[in-house]
Amino acid sequence: MDDRNTTVKGETPLIRADIDNVSVWKSVGRYKNVALIAMIASFSASLDGYQINLNGGIVSNKGFIRQIAGPGTTIIGGKYVSAWGGIQSAGQTIGQILLQYATEAFGRKIALYIIWVTLCVSIFIESFATQWDHWLAAKLFSGMGVGMLQSTMPLYLSEIAPTQLRGFFINAYSFWFVLGQLFASVALNRLNAIDPLNFRTPIYTQATVIFVYIPETPWWLASKGRLDEAANVLRRCNGNVRGYDIQEQIDIMTSTVTEERKIARENAQEGTWAVFRGRNLLRFIIAGWPKITQQFVGLSVFNTYATYFFQYAGNKDPFLVTVILSCVQLISMILTATLTDRFGRRPLTVYPYAVTSVSVLCLGIIGCFDYTQQTLSSLLIFFACLATFSTTGASAIGYAYAAEIPQQRLRAQTAGWSLASSNLIAIMFSFCTPLMINGSAQWGVKTGFFFAAAGTVSTVIAWFILPEVTRRTPGEIDEMFERKVNLRKFDKYTTGTQRNAEGEVPNV
Fold first, then answer.
1. Which GO terms of the cellular component aspect does the record hold (predicted)?
2. What is the pTM for the complete model shown?
């Protein structure tokens, strides 16, 4: 690509179009084609959520217990559950670290095909697993596929979405993820009622093929100098949108990438480890912190191991509880998806995590009493629902931070490394949480105390470091980081392009 920056208004590189100033609600009615593509692409996340909940819920299935642990066993030992959860988180980390190189070199769509093959391998092994180590191997590939999808799909959605609807489309990924979790919970709960020894059927229903129908992202194509192809994708996605100038959008993309490369050369931030150099290191930390916080507030207790947690707590129908929690997640995602572009990323991340920290503290307090009594048991479920509701939305916005905060030229690498860092912590909790609940620690419900303390610390850090990037273009985000704008004042900052356009009325 030509590194000369010719797309300017005055002396300022063009990094924002007039159509980016159209309100969120008006934009919803205009971008119909890209909305359809985004929903088709994000549907794949239902498999992601299905896999996560299947791993956490199937350990309480009577048929699975009999097959894997042998006759006479009622609850699978914590060490096995820890191993499966840990290897899945390890697989997620491996997938996120490795796939980023293919994502950047060959494109987002090729990366999605690699993900599909990896998930098919995991489903094949799950279908024929008869021993605990077979399931261990399946969870490795499952984790790799899930991790790859987590780091690639939000990135894909952010690169095809219009500026003012980026949060909505990225959250579509999490919406389908939650719906997939609900499918798994309902399937396991229904089987528990009509055929409690059957655990294979939910495994057979996972495969889906949709990636062939979606285009490559115009941002990646433009960054590789394939401008005609980028223009064709924009025409397919937004060609019928009133006021949308395809050439102007191409110019903005090339201008943004050219400016990033210029700054990288000037600041010696090129090469394999550019993600961890200069301001990019700060962007890497911010991109990963919301997802790291979700681990510290106790996601593994009230999500991954919800069935195991409530089974240990004496609930007679732990599968039903997970269905309730999945419905709560769905409600949370509907609200988050519709509000994030209106009210912003920062408040919908920090405040919900604070609520979660209080909720798990209440779980710990209840654990000090006889929580098998009906009143306290109901309170246990209530606070688990509250923690699930608040964390689901904040965690979903974490994908927006991972996709939006990095420079365009480092988007795949930064998203992959930041989410992998979160999963490194998830590996630790995947091993430790079952042991906290029903291992050598024997904390049971009092496990909530640990996550209340860890969650409070991580939420306070989030308050200080998470900026507001809602309705900002990639070029604007670059400018604010390079000018070292106070992270908590991003929403009040006026960029160079905005100053040049002051007083102008968008002609859209």
1. membrane
2. 0.84
